[in-house]
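Project channel, design review

CF: Before we commit to the Fulvivirga sediminis constructs, I'd like one complete example in the thread so the newer folks can see what an input/output pair looks like. Taking 6-phosphogluconate dehydrogenase, decarboxylating.
RD: sounds good, go ahead.
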Amino acid sequence: MSNTGYDFGMVGLGVMGRNLLLNIADSGYSVIGLDKDTEKVASLTEEADKDHVKATTSAEEFISSLKSPRKIMMLVPAGAPVDSVIAELTPFLSKGDLLMDGGNSYFPDTNRRYDALTEKGIHYMGVGISGGEEGARRGPSIMPGGSAASYDFIKPILEAAAAKVNGEPCVTFIGHRSAGNYVKMVHNGIEYALMQLISEAYHLLKSGAGLSDEELKNVFTEWNKGELNSFLIEITSEIFAKKDEDGETLILNKILDRARSKGTGKWTSQNAMDLQVPAPTIDLAVVARDISAIKEEREAAGEIFPAKEYKLDASKEEVIGKVENALKFAFITAYAQGFAMIKKASDEYNYEVKIAEVAKIWRGGCIIRAAMLEDFRKAFEADASLKNIMVNDDLAKKLNAYQSDIRDCVKMGVDASIPMSATMASLSYFDLYRSGWLPLNLIQAQRDFFGAHTYERIGEEGVFHTIWK
Ligand SMILES: NC(=O)C1=CN([C@@H]2O[C@H](COP(=O)(O)OP(=O)(O)OC[C@H]3O[C@@H](n4cnc5c(N)ncnc54)[C@H](OP(=O)(O)O)[C@@H]3O)[C@@H](O)[C@H]2O)C=CC1
Ligand SMILES: O=C(CO)[C@H](O)[C@H](O)COP(=O)(O)O
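CF: and here is what came back for 6-phosphogluconate dehydrogenase, decarboxylating:
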């Protein structure tokens, strides 16, 4: 075992890898990066302090330059590139080395890789990282999963690199095997939901209430000073101020309304269905991106079904106040869906996630950081068995206070032909969840009618079947 060499190695020197490596180097660790791209290698070598930051295109040099046991992270695109890096490095790795995947890998892939490498005596971790380029450089939220022993081995480096809230690092051991990638996937599902909710608020304010770009900027800036304080509201206010090179047109108004995605939102929705945990706001956020992609079809349909002219029967100030409360309500429901998924997944997949810790490390560094995460942390801290944050006393008071405004916003959207799909889904989720009685007795009767699927009766033991005709 050698004590000389670099403390930490990064494979993939793109947006995330390069910045996280420099962040780790800032804390005094010696680091080495590996990338196939000679330009990326040259640019890192140029920028960094040569004494303790190095980059190479040679896997052999990379491996032999690291202190043993080695600590390596991959930040390459999810999917085949991760398997390819693992295949390339594994022959050179020794028992006790740690290999981490910091990308947005699909959690079943992480389980497969974890099992294969654990069998070889190599520690493997799926480490969710959020914060984008700036977060990676200055302090992201980090969600490591794998084994507690592996985490202890890398903890000082991850704690040094992570964002800090009240002096506490936004990193914790999330849970076993693929727990880190799972929680990051749900983080992204919530990210999709919040972004879609904000976009719908923008649509209602712009097309319904007629707010100018300047007014939109001011509204979002004000919102960010209150309960909605969050990274996504903050960047939205900045987007409403960013002019193109001509100094006149907002860049936003030049961007095509066709949203792309890399898959984490879809995986969240798919897994929610698998676990039978309702996540309709996330589902509708995915649906909205998918529908946005078929722009030509939308334009053709718009000719057949033109939106009717409609003037909202409320002042701008009134609409702004209602939309703000609708967003607060819908944000809570979006996080509620994500947390409910993590709780169920933790049981189902034996992750042993400490849910209050997840809320805690999402308070800083990540894309979904928001002031209200402290409320969620407190709710789970007070009661780790809490099934849904919506029924926590303090959050229930807020939902009760805002529910008439979200209903009004949905009505305004319906009247003005403005699609408020994720907002509606949030309200429906709430209404379904708070309904002690739902009309699904009728579905049971129909199932039994056409398929003899049987049904249960109120206050009676057993299952029943009726000859309906
Ligand atoms: N960008 C973001 O905001 C965030 C991204 N992520 C996740 O982090 C991961 C990395 O993303 P990001 O940094 O944006 O991606 P980039 O495409 O910017 O960087 C990936 C880098 O990996 C390199 N690479 C690919 N295959 C190999 C290989 N076999 N060996 C060595 N290097 C390789 C690429 O080189 P080359 O270009 O030459 O192929 C590139 O430099 C992804 O899983 C992403 O989803 C997570 C959080 C935020
Ligand atoms: O992980 C992230 C932030 O936390 C990425 O920015 C995310 O990959 C963006 O996803 P998509 O491209 O699907 O919108």
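RD: helpful, thanks. Residues 209 and 317 are 9 Å apart (CA to CA).
CF: DSSP finds 19 helices and ten strands in the chain.
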